[in-house]
# Entry
Amino acid sequence: MRMMNNELLKINLTKKQVEPIEISDEILEKYIGGRGLGVRLFLNRIKPKIDPLGPDNMLIFTTGPFGATNIPTNGRFSLVTKSPLTNGIFYSNSGGSFGVFMKKCSYDGILLKGALDLPGYLLIDGEKNVEIKEAEELWGLDTESTLAKLKEIEGKNIHVLMIGPAGENLVKFASIMNDATRAFGRGGLGAVMGSKKLKAIVVKGGTKKFTPYDPDLLKKYVKMALDKIKIVPITRSALPTFGTSALVNVINNMGMFPINNFQKGYDKRSSQVSGEAINKQLTKEQEGCYACPIRCGRLTQAGDMSGKGPEYESLWALGPNLGIYDLITVAQANYLCNRLGLDTISCGGAIACAMELQEKGLFKNKELSFGNAEELKPLVRAIAEKEGIGNEISHGAALLAEKYNSHETAIHVKGLELPAYDPRGAIGHALGYATSNRGGDHLTGYLASMEIFAAPKKIDRFTMAGKPDLLALKQNQKATEDSLVICAFAGWALGLDYYARFLKAITGIDYDVIEITQIGERIYTIERLYNLREGLTKADDTLPPRFLNEPLKEGGSQGHVVPLKEMLKQYYFVRSWDEKGIPKKELLEKLEINFNSKEGS
Amino acid sequence: MVVDQSIFRIFDKIGKHLVHQGLNTSHSGNISIRSGGKIIIKRRAAMLGNLEPEDLVECALEEEDSGSLIASTELGVHRAIYKETDAMAVIHAHIPYGVTLSLIEDEITCIDAEGFALYKKVPVIEVEIPAGAYYTAIEVPKVLKNYPFVIVRGHGIFAKGMTLEDALQNVTGAEQSAKIRYLTLLTGKPLLRDYSKEKDFSDW
# Structure
């Protein structure tokens, strides 16, 4: 396919074998790239019911056709693997520049399997040289030190994916950090990399240029897209001015900003950690990814520490959800998570679970109480090092609560801790949590964009009509966006009508909106098939009982619970899944999913 | 079947708007949504501006069913749109300015700022028999794959949306652009600024 290399690097770490593999146009036309390509390759090669932290698991990094063009926000790239937290498929994407330079090094992706016997790192350069190098002296370092050391060794002009101590210690919610400040955050992907004893992946150089099919047409469409980004308030001013932390006051005022492990949905003190507070107290400068006109990132200084963020979810997870409203403490805990390589959402979610267990008298540790800011940073370190109570928390909220026979205290779906939107305040978004292929995740469907932000259009957040249909569409569209690969934030201004035209202009293939949406549906369906094969069932498409039975007592979402049962029934029907949530044969035929075919072999 | 009150309220609101703003006559036009994998559509001959709860009919999306006995005549077009596009709601309206321009132009270029920012142009198609569902059900979804609306020459607009309100915005937006274009043409004077020439939306 035009704008792709049609080549992927396959590396067996156990055997230290490196081989390029060709990706056919047929696969790319059906799955595009990014998440779709990664999922397709993963499913074709992965054995059933493997240990996610064993050598049979794979890490598949991929780029898409938009990468290395002038399409706005094309700097992202994808990762697909099996999650140690959910035991299901996990797709993630990250920004920065690594993906673009991997593509410019002539590879659309990297497929890693096996495990090294000693710590190592992978080096890929622009001349297609690939080397596995020893990393004994990097092992144990935090991500900032790792990046600094690698720059000493390999030179300054590099981009690096790496794990911190949390990944090395197989913490189940360890992240993979991207140039030390961005992340493949969720799902414990850093633990998978740690299990392979792979400390880092370095891309050096990369100068390949790509020519779109119709450069003039692409230029024209890109100009139109940039104009649109300039006139939509969210992309023009809210995100550039405040970053994602702009959400704090909005969500809190709607009464769906989770406080103390989702026991409340509003607290007036939340404004102390808002976007306005960050700008006033912490922000040093604005920062953005490759080819991004929005530039939502923030370089910040909090006391004697500095770094990037915190983003909205991190602010919440390490702040109000733990009863902590001291911005400096929250920001420093966020920096620490980045340095240690921990997912801030799951880290905060697991700590919140422990705090509620303590509140219930089940977890005997006096330091663990909502609002205890002093103990937060030591606790984050203990989790990364798996020391003391940190070890118990490091397995995630679900296992922690199960150990204390209090499963309702863990706020998770399929093992993944929920992010910063109380589902009782937006019931379509709630259905998205329950049905996401990667568990308790807000990005897979993100119906909150319509229920809360009226983007692209407003829908009532408490009524059910049409929500299952709309969610399925949004989940399919997101799978398409993740495969192109383009940032979700571009979606505040643009949409698949732009993306289909971009794709047509760069590949010369006559895609339309509906075709690329159906590609998303194909991707979503095969992810579902994988999860079913791994043993997930309809029973996993649910929410913590708190959201089904206990209305919020105050704030803008007061009195509401999630009518999940009826919505789920409709959702299965809309998706052409049977009553057990299994995709029907007719659907597989419609989507041309046939793993026995030559293409699927 | 009497549908959920919240659904009726939105049908009632949109129906009244379409008639009161002169976008439909007392008995023309039809509106529908996709909900729970089914279609909820206005009943045949029901007055859009005076809907009752039982004027909403639930029909199957994938196949013909008995609901079509009382559903809007254009059910077939709505069903085809839902099956072939990403529409979550559909409105059909006989917008006067849009229909007028469709009789003299092959596409309506938006020359107003709002129109070109949101839509760029309003596609126009011609079908052998414009009224009724047979030909329009074949041709209309083809255009709605890539555009929010299409005008069937001499007949009316079909607009899709993520919600009925969204579809209404598309109907009124198209009509507003058509009205401004029509009135501008009526003056017979050259445009001091022609956005359509600046931006060239021909291949959008």
Remarks:
- Chain A has a mean pLDDT of 95.
- Chain A has three domains: 7-204, 243-410, 423-590.
- The two ends of chain A are 20 Å apart (CA to CA).
- The longest strand of chain A covers residues 198-204.
